[in-house]
Amino acid sequence: MHFQIISRSDEISSELQRKMIERLTGAGMTLNEESPELVISIGGDGTLLSAFHKYQHRLKETCFVGVHTGHLGFYADWNPEETDELIDLIIEQDFEVIEYPLVKTKVMCADETHEFLSLNESTLKMPRGTTLVIDVSLRKGLFERFRGDGICMSTPSGSTAYNKSLGGAIIHPSFRAMQMTEIASLNNRVFRTVGSPMVFPDTHFVRISTTTELPHAVAIDHLHFEIGSIEQIEYRVAKESIRFARFRPFPFWQRVRESFISN
């Protein structure tokens, strides 16, 4: 098996990376940065997000597994003290493949189109605190004119991230869906929005029409862009999925409990 390790590069993570490379290559596996079959993330959720974006062009060929050495490891199944057990299971190649849905964001500008995949969420705002004014269409019909700080379109696994802090629902990743949550919408007797998170199946798309040619702030997970002359933005549940190597049962709701409730 060909593998690659993405580390947060702190002392603990770097030592675990060195140990895993030594043992896995000693067992006949190949360290391969270009085309790994298994990507091991050592750090927090940010480390795994970085690994996902680095290898998103190989989602059909590559699986991911996380070792948690960061502050929050929602995507990580393993703790540092369990590394020897994980190494043994990787060498035995005894794992189940679990797929989580992604969100595809298509940004259509006057002269070019940008496409992105998100593992957690895709957000749209105006730079420097300007009010965002957009028309929101569901499938092909206008739904509302939104005014506020922005919108967040999250994946089911990403529903526990920024979406949760905005008051959105937590969605089990077995649902191929996406969720739109408002960020500080303006609601008064003049301006109205639905004022509630909305969940869409993979048969639907959401299309945003902008009302200004000024640059908009587009965030794809931890990546931030300012894009000008946007005409429309389309959100869909992506055809692609991220594949996790699951070496032992780790139910989603147990993951939620351990991340947000357990001490």
TrEMBL record:
<dbReference type="GO" id="GO:0005524">
    <property type="term" value="F:ATP binding"/>
</dbReference>
<feature type="binding site">
    <location>
        <begin position="45"/>
        <end position="46"/>
    </location>
    <ligand>
        <name>NAD(+)</name>
    </ligand>
</feature>
<dbReference type="InterPro" id="IPR017438">
    <property type="entry name" value="ATP-NAD_kinase_N"/>
</dbReference>
<comment type="function">
    <text>Involved in the regulation of the intracellular balance of NAD and NADP, and is a key enzyme in the biosynthesis of NADP. Catalyzes specifically the phosphorylation on 2'-hydroxyl of the adenosine moiety of NAD to yield NADP.</text>
</comment>
<dbReference type="GO" id="GO:0006741">
    <property type="term" value="P:NADP+ biosynthetic process"/>
</dbReference>
<feature type="binding site">
    <location>
        <begin position="160"/>
        <end position="165"/>
    </location>
    <ligand>
        <name>NAD(+)</name>
    </ligand>
</feature>
<keyword id="KW-0418">Kinase</keyword>
<dbReference type="InterPro" id="IPR016064">
    <property type="entry name" value="NAD/diacylglycerol_kinase_sf"/>
</dbReference>
<comment type="similarity">
    <text>Belongs to the NAD kinase family.</text>
</comment>
<keyword id="KW-0547">Nucleotide-binding</keyword>
<dbReference type="GO" id="GO:0019674">
    <property type="term" value="P:NAD+ metabolic process"/>
</dbReference>
<keyword id="KW-0963">Cytoplasm</keyword>
<dbReference type="GO" id="GO:0003951">
    <property type="term" value="F:NAD+ kinase activity"/>
</dbReference>
<dbReference type="Pfam" id="PF01513">
    <property type="entry name" value="NAD_kinase"/>
</dbReference>
<feature type="binding site">
    <location>
        <begin position="120"/>
        <end position="121"/>
    </location>
    <ligand>
        <name>NAD(+)</name>
    </ligand>
</feature>
<keyword id="KW-0808">Transferase</keyword>
<dbReference type="InterPro" id="IPR002504">
    <property type="entry name" value="NADK"/>
</dbReference>
<dbReference type="GO" id="GO:0046872">
    <property type="term" value="F:metal ion binding"/>
</dbReference>
<feature type="binding site">
    <location>
        <position position="149"/>
    </location>
    <ligand>
        <name>NAD(+)</name>
    </ligand>
</feature>
<dbReference type="GO" id="GO:0051287">
    <property type="term" value="F:NAD binding"/>
</dbReference>
<feature type="binding site">
    <location>
        <position position="147"/>
    </location>
    <ligand>
        <name>NAD(+)</name>
    </ligand>
</feature>
<keyword id="KW-0520">NAD</keyword>
<dbReference type="GO" id="GO:0005737">
    <property type="term" value="C:cytoplasm"/>
</dbReference>
<keyword id="KW-0067">ATP-binding</keyword>
<protein>
    <recommendedName>
        <fullName>NAD kinase</fullName>
        <ecNumber>2.7.1.23</ecNumber>
    </recommendedName>
</protein>
<feature type="active site" description="Proton acceptor">
    <location>
        <position position="45"/>
    </location>
</feature>
<feature type="binding site">
    <location>
        <position position="184"/>
    </location>
    <ligand>
        <name>NAD(+)</name>
    </ligand>
</feature>
<dbReference type="InterPro" id="IPR017437">
    <property type="entry name" value="ATP-NAD_kinase_PpnK-typ_C"/>
</dbReference>
<keyword id="KW-0521">NADP</keyword>
<dbReference type="Pfam" id="PF20143">
    <property type="entry name" value="NAD_kinase_C"/>
</dbReference>
